[in-house]
Amino acid sequence: MADPLPLCPPHRLPRALTSIADLRADGLVAAADAPALEAVAAEFRVRLSPAMRAALRDPGDAVARQFLPDRREARVRPEELADPIGDAVHSPVPGLTHRYPDRVILHVTQTCEVYCRFCFRREGVGSTGALPADQLDAALAHVAAHPAIREVILTGGDPMSLSARRIGAILDRLATIPHVGVVRFHTRVPVVAPERIDAGLIAALDIRPAVHVVVHTNHADEIGAEARAALRRLSRAGIPLLSQTVLLRGINDSVGALETLFRTLIENRVTPYYLHHCDLARGTSHFRTTIAEGRALVAALRGRISGLCQPTYVLDIPGGHGKAPLTADNLRETGEPGHWQVRDWQGRWHDYRDPVRD
Ligand code: SF4
After folding, report:
1. What's the pLDDT tens digit per position in 114-158?
2. Catalytic residue at 309?
3. Does residue 171 sit in the same domain as residue 235?
4. Which is nearest to 262 in space by CA: 315, 233, 288, 223?
């Protein structure tokens, strides 16, 4: 018999760590580093969820490095951008990105359960909460007025940081738009705050349009027993689960780390979907590999793990030109080391430069 679904007990959880003072008090930041990290935190928000605090074993490990501020974030390179994937370029109304004809991104909240140091939306996350009602109305009116839109991607921030009641209300409104057949959540919550995958949320997701959940996770050490149980609750509810991973220098840029992550995902009924080349967000060059390094890792995985475990390695072309799989037909070398051209979905070529190493 299935385990009963738990109800979320937020009053019993330890609280998230949201400041350098919190991290210092927990022994995760040394006193000597605090002033420099305060400056970083003033620019880019800090939040470490209780589940990720529990998964973190050492301030230098693969979990810690994703969430603990680093002095190197103060170093902004000329090629780095405030809006690296160009959401704003394709925004017909606030809170909505309409880049491709058949789908839109609806930014339902700016809040997350964690603030990742490499986040491509790090300029905005945490700045406000849920999308204001009048902006949500305008975004849904845009979707309703465009019958070519078949899929609505809920993102943010993290859409599953909203309450089940609020998520249910948004889904109920999307259900009234007949041409919307799929709603896709992009979320870190099943891994970083698994307690939120409770009976109320599962009930809210049981709706037409079909709900798919894309789980963002970057290292197998994030996926503890509670995250596995949350994924099981979602898969038992019949919700297709996919994953998205960012390739991160010093965190998962090894064949072993990626192999373990993708095997862990598939064993938990999550199909690896995308491996993202790290975006050009400000202050993140220490996380970026070169494209050649990423392609070599993907090639090395081919013979080691089954096709079921293989995500597509993609680049979100800076400037809002969309995703390109980093395959030979979409890439050409210019002859200058680290200088590539990448082809977008409309056949146009764009320059891309690998990070410069100091
Ligand atoms: S959870 Fe997603 S949107 Fe939020 S900070 Fe992390 S990467 Fe960015």
Report:
1. 999 999 889 888 888 999 999 999 999 999 999 999 999 999 899
2. no
3. yes
4. 223
Asked if the structure places residue 326 within a domain, the reply is yes
More confident position, 5 or 159: 159
> Which residues does ligand 1 sit against, CB inside 6 Å?
112, 114-116, 119, 121, 125, 156-158, 188, 216
For the chain, the residue count is 358
- Same domain as 280, residue 190: yes
81: in domain: no
For residue 358, what pLDDT is reported?
62
CATH number of the domain at 214, please.
3.20.20.70
Residue in 22, 61, 77, 100 annotated catalytic: 100
From the list 184, 279, 282, 352, the catalytic residue is 279
Nearest CA to ligand 1 atom 7: 119
- Cα–ligand 1 centroid distance for 1 (angstroms): 35
Tokens found for residue 112: 């997350």
Residue 347 belongs to domain spanning: 88-353
Per-residue confidence (pLDDT) for residue 12, from 0 to 100:
53
pLDDT computed for residue 5 by the predictor: 44
Told to judge if 100 belongs to the known catalytic residues of this protein, a careful annotator would answer yes
Between strands 241-246 and 271-276, the pairing is parallel
Enter the pTM of the model.
0.94
Q: Which two tokens stand for residue 98?
A: 């309409």
How far is Cα 64 from Cα 78, in angstroms, rounded to an integer?
27
Quick check: is 294 in a domain? Answer: yes
Q: What are the φ/ψ torsions at residue 311 (nearest 5 degrees)?
A: -80, 170
- 72 labelled catalytic: no
List of E strands, the chain: 96-100, 103-107, 151-155, 182-187, 210-216, 241-246, 271-276, 312-316, 323-325, 331-333, 339-343, 349-353
Closest ligand 1 atom, residue 121 Cα: 8
- Ligand 1 geometric centre to CA of 118 (Å): 8
Cβ contacts of 268 within 8 Å, gap of 6 or more: 223, 228, 231, 232, 235, 241
- Is the CB of residue 182 less than 8 Å from the CB of residue 210? yes
Active site residue 112: yes
